[in-house]
Structure formats: structure tokens, C-alpha cells
Design goal:
The chain has 166 residues and is α+β, with helices and mostly antiparallel strands. It has a domain of 36 residues. The longest helix has 26 residues. It has six helices and four strands. The protein is 38% helix and 13% strand. This is DUF177 domain-containing protein.
Length: 166
């Protein structure tokens, strides 16, 4: 069941039909678990089968979200990026050099080379996320399924909305 509620930044009201569908209406105690970008409302006490069914539902939701993201990125049309994709190594620069350059110590870094100069230029990235921030299991699923990793990275770096209206 999916119900879209406007965020009023004060309280969220959960309709009775949602509580009934999730078997939470009859529960003596309800537990709220916060996740990044979401939360889970669940029974505070469960027997083994209830816990298994909750875990199975969360797994199904996770799969739905990954399938949705794959659909947004689309199949790879033999782009050279995906063919030779390798996981990036993290760029590590000593803290004192970052401080000298005026770059925050926890900043995301990117690098490029000037053609024929023999120099590598490292600077603060103008984006928050790239393919290096994606869990390996997502990359593995995309590679095995032929989903374009370049498109995924583009969506990450541009911070485009990929779920919901916009």
C-alpha cells in the first residue's frame, strides 16, 4: 500500500487503513526505526514468523527501489564507460595540503590531468555523490543486468530526482 502524505514538518498522521493493513492496529507497542531518507514503523514485539515476514517485506521494498532506479538509468547501449568500468580508488591527500588549498578535510575530491603536462590536479568536487559512494551490491546488480552505470553516475552527480514527482 502506498499513500503519499504532505510533510508539514510537525506531525505525520497514519491512516487507520494503513495500520490495519500492516497489522499494527492491534499491536500493544509500536517501534519507530529511522533510516536515512525514511523510517520504518513496526510492532515493538514480534514472534519469529512476524519478524520473518517484516524482513521479507523490507527485502521486497529494497528490490522494488533498486528496480525503479535501474529503470530510470536504463539499459547500457554498449557505452565505453560501462565496458571498462572499474571501481575508483579514493583520492587521498594529506590534511595539511587540503588546509593549504582551503579545501575542507571531509570534502569530496576529484582529479584530472592537463594533457602532456605530467601533472595531476586535485580539487574539491562540485557535487556531493558519485559512483564511489554507491554500495557494491548495487553496482554488481547493474553490471549483471546490463544497466548503464554511466547514467547512474550522472544522476548521482547532478542530484536529479529519480523517485516521485518532480
Amino acid at each position: 500500500m502506498k499513500i503519499i502524505k504532505e510533510n508539514s514538518n510537525s506531525n505525520i498522521i497514519i491512516p487507520i487503513k494503513v495500520l490495519k493493513a500492516s497489522s499494527l492496529l492491534d499491536s500493544e507497542d509500536i517501534e519507530l526505526k529511522s533510516l536515512e531518507n525514511g523510517f520504518i514503523l513496526m510492532k515493538g514485539t514480534m514472534n519469529a514468523m512476524e519478524l520473518i515476514k517484516l524482513a521479507e517485506g523490507l527485502k521486497s521494498l529494497s528490490e522494488e527501489l533498486i528496480v525503479h532506479l535501474a529503470g530510470v538509468c536504463g539499459r547500457c547501449l554498449d557505452c565505453s564507460y560501462c565496458e571498462k568500468f572499474e571501481e575508483y580508488d579514493e583520492i587521498i591527500v594529506p590534511d595539511y595540503l587540503l588546509e593549504e588549498a582551503g579545501i575542507p578535510i571531509d570534502a569530496k575530491l576529484c582529479a584530472y590531468t592537463e594533457e602532456d603536462s605530467g601533472e595531476v590536479v586535485v580539487m574539491q568536487a562540485d557535487y556531493d555523490y558519485d559512483i564511489a559512494d554507491v554500495p557494491n551490491f548495487v553496482i554488481d546488480i547493474f553490471e549483471m543486468s546490463g544497466i548503464c552505470i554511466r547514467e547512474l553516475e550522472e544522476k548521482l552527480m547532478t542530484d536529479n530526482i529519480v523517485y516521485g514527482d518532480e
